[in-house]
Design a protein that fits this description.
2 strands; alpha+beta; 96 residues; two-stranded parallel sheet
Length: 96
């Protein structure tokens, strides 16, 4: 999967664990009682400049290739996302 951004049309393409990760991130970055400490990240979120990546279990070697591909794509396109753009990568966490 390539980079993802907040777009209602794209949400239907996400797996359950990806939706949950995105919802938890949303709750953290929009928490009014405990504001997110990084102002540029909050601005990036508010202006939909954050790009998200989803990768497998970080304990699996194949996940490194997924992360490398996400970083490559982000590096190539980041200047077009906006001045506050950031990359957030969520990893699949399986209890073992």
């Amino acid at each position: 999967m390539s980079l993802f951004f907040k777009d209602p049309k794209l949400i239907s393409q996400l797996q359950d664990w990806q939706l949950k990760a995105l919802e938890e991130f949303n709750a953290k970055i929009t928490d009014k009682e405990h504001p997110f400490p990084c102002i540029p990240a909050a601005q990036a979120y508010a202006s939909n400049q954050i790009r998200y990546g989803f990768a497998g279990d970080p304990r699996d070697r194949s996940t490194a290739r997924q992360v490398a591909a996400l970083l490559k794509e982000y590096t190539e396109k980041s200047k077009s996302f906006g001045g506050y753009t950031s990359l957030v990568i969520f990893f699949l966490h399986l209890r073992k």
